[in-house]
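Protein details
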Amino acid sequence: MTEIADTLNSVEVVANSTSILIRKLETTVKHRRHKVMFRSKR
């Protein structure tokens, strides 16, 4: 049982880290898109 719990905990940690990385990537992409939009408008 302890092994299963450890694996579940590790999976949760990995999922949390990946979600945070995805959020950071999304924010950077949004900022880049906005910059491109401003450049295209000018």
